[in-house]
Amino acid sequence: MDRRYIDDNHVVARYLADRLTDEEREAFEAYYLEHPEVVQELEAASRFKAGLMSLRDSGELTTLLQPEPRRPVWQYVAAAAAVAAVVVGTLLLVRAPETHPLLAASVDALHQTNGATPVIASAHAILRTRGSSVDAEIPLPPAGKAIELRVLPEFTATRYRVRLFRMSADDSLQSVAEVGGLEPAPDTFVEVFVDGARLRPGQYRLAIVGDPDTDARDKESAFILRMLPPLNDPSAKSR
Amino acid sequence: MRLFFGPGKGQKEPGQGSVREDAISDQFIAEHYTGLQALLQRRIGDAAIAAEMLNEAIATAIVHMRQGRVAQPERLAGYVFRVAMNLYRNYRREFDNRAELRAGGDAVQQLPGANNVEDALDTGVVQAVRAIVASLPTARDREIVKRFYLDEEDKEQICRSLGLGALHFDKVIFRARQRLRALLEARGFRKSDLLGVLLVGVA
Questions:
Q1: Which residue, A47, A175, B24, B149, is most buried by CB atoms nearer than 10 A?
Q2: Residue B83 in contact with residue B36, Cβ under 8 Å?
Q3: Which residues of A121-145 are buried (b: 16+ CB within 10 A; e: fewer)?
């Protein structure tokens, strides 16, 4: 048993529910004796389960599970009108469409400054880390510089697709960029380049999936990245 | 009730001899194993038995450490967890084999203390769990988490009954797990703290 098996098969929750086979349980117990960070996850999941039981007993869980009330039709109409206004305004203001991607397979494809290809400010290996809620902390570069990400997928595919999402404070995801047709390097890492100056500090989710025309199209490895303000950013302290 | 929770073969009774250290206090368990204790408490329906199981698990871990059966100190935290889970499984097996001891749900609810089982969790944890559930974007996602973590249904069963793909299920549970980790870190829980305290007990 390894970390990937534990995550992919939800072993922590199933262990606490006593739903593992004897073989799985023995293997998992042997694993977590060697990996104390998994014991933390067991304790966290135990608290979560006990907390849910408490909410159920108090009757609060029933309320929490209710779908949100439907909004009146006029609110949808107003929202649609607002969106239309923003779209029209944007079309009027933007002189030329953005042709340079935020995420690319090569640094040359990113936005050029004064005709020059962006300089790579930093390179980061993105792979599963244990015992932390964040897989990588990345300082954002200034304009004209890019970030190189070397992503280690936890499955095999002939070609990959990388998707980047910004995570809001409530953990909802907003799609930021996507690039496909990525071939792995001989060391199985997949390389992408990010126009980092166009990102905001905060938490992002990077998902690597198999390209749609591959057998691995349903597989995904996801990582949490924390983008930090540029090191020389004078406003960083106030953010 | 303690009849069902005897010491394992060759083990000392908790609280006897040198097994139970002063450091193994209720406060210590509350700080480091509050989730496990609350879970055991809920399942057994008796706070005293749950606390005693944890005490015995810690005492056993320390004894085994002294006997050299726990080779590396960093394994101690997991060792405690494993012993506690085994004790619980043994307890449940014995309980299941003695039908005359089982009572209906109504009778359990009428037992003294049956409505105080949440005492092991502080209100901050319950608030955090409430926030995690509330932050899930759709009612269906909240339903998935509830059925998986609380009702302990299988993934396949949940996916089938809600008409979900396995990928969607995995995403929802992944997101809940991320929030759980953040919750734990935000509350300053560190197993290394526990290890230090246990090692003081062993020294």
A1: A47
A2: no
A3: beebebeeeeeebbbbebbbbeebb
A18: contact with B, CB 8 A cutoff: yes
Q: Over 70: is that where the pLDDT of B185 sits?
A: no
pLDDT of residue A92: 55
Q: Which of B67, B55, B72, B52 is nearest to B10 (CA)?
A: B67
- Mean pLDDT (whole number) for B24-44: 75
pTM higher than 0.80 for the full model?
no
Question: Are B75 and A33 a contacting pair at CB < 8 A?
Answer: yes
Distance CA A96, CA B105 (A): 69
User: Which of A52, A191, A214 lies closest to B126 in space, CA to CA?
Assistant: A52
Instruction: Tell me which of B195 and B89 has the higher pLDDT.
Output: B89
* Of B128, B126, B44, B38, residue with least CA distance to B88: B44
Nearest Cα residue to A148 out of A138, A157, A158, A156: A138
Q: Tell me, yes or no, if A172 comes closer than 8 A to chain B by beta carbon.
A: yes
For residues A160 and B162, what is the distance between their CA atoms, to the nearest angstrom?
29
pLDDT at B31 exceeding the cut of 50: yes
What does the block give as tokens for B34? 């509050």
Contacts of B154 in chain A (CB under 8 A): 19
What the block records as the tokens of A46 is 């135990």
Alpha-carbon distance of B56 to B61, in angstroms, equals 8
The reply to whether residue A51 touches residue B128, judged by beta carbons under 8 angstroms, is yes
Per-state percent for chain B, helix, strand, coil, to nearest 5: 75, 0, 25
Using the Cβ of A16 and the Cβ atoms of chain B, whether some distance falls under 8 Å is answered with yes
B87 at the A interface (CB within 8 A)?
no
Reading the block at residue A190, the tokens are 């997949």
With a CB-CB cutoff of 8 Å, which residues 22-61 of chain B face chain A? 32-36, 38-39, 41-42
pLDDT for B52 beyond 80: yes
CA atoms within 13 A on the CB side of A226: 8
Contact B37, B120 (CB under 8 A): yes
Instruction: Identify the sign of the CA torsion A113, A119, A122, A127.
Output: positive
Look up residue A215 and give its two tokens: 């057998």
d(CA B66, CA B73): 11
Short-list A38, A191, A36, A222, CA closest to A125:
A191
Residue A233: what pLDDT? 58
Strand partners, A167: A173
B126 touching chain A per CB within 8 A: yes
Write the residue in B166, B175, B189 that is nearest to A40 by C-beta.
Answer: B189
